Amino acid sequence: HGLMCDRLGDSDEAGLELPEPGALRVVAGRWPSPRSSATHGPGIRKGTLADGSEVTAYPDGRRRTRHPDGTVVVSFSDGGREVRRLDGSRQFRTSSGVVKTVSADGRTTVDYPDGNRKITFTDGRVEERFATGTTRTMSADGTEETLFADGTVEERRQDGRKVVRSADGQQEVRYPDGRR
Fold first, then answer.
1. Residue with the larger pLDDT of the pair 43 and 105
2. Which residues have C-beta within 8 Å of that of residue 14, sequence separation ≥ 6?
3. Are 92 and 82 in contact (CB under 8 A)?
4. Of 24, 27, 48, 45, nearest in space to 36 by CA
5. Of 12, 98, 109, 161, whose CB is crowded by the most CB atoms within 10 A?
6. What is the pLDDT of residue 42?
């Protein structure tokens, strides 16, 4: 539109104004259409709820809600959902019930429908908590400790040794070559 306006600049027409940058868009060679708060694109609907939340519905079934506190919730047509908070934390829920939470500090927690949970810490440590009562912690250095529901603790060390301590205090060391 700059070339057209340059040519018209010599004419006597009064009141010629250029549109704001971004006000016109060209899509696949079509005539530019103006963008405004009323025109969002094909199939996109926007609205505001009584509490001030802004809702956008997309043609593919997604629905995005921006709440007054800054929280953004995106609901997907398959039943999945994503929540983003101002502190940087995010939560994803799949249609199958798996919930993944990324905390502001970078820790990631995944909760499964069967009651199992996996937590990944920023230092590389991973903790798995099973519905059976067993907890396994794997450190970034390769060591692993498993606490079973009956109180038994099993440690796997970097050198391949496995140390098993029963709840009554007995201890057994198993070496990689099979010795005990």
1. 105
2. none
3. yes
4. 24
5. 109
6. 76
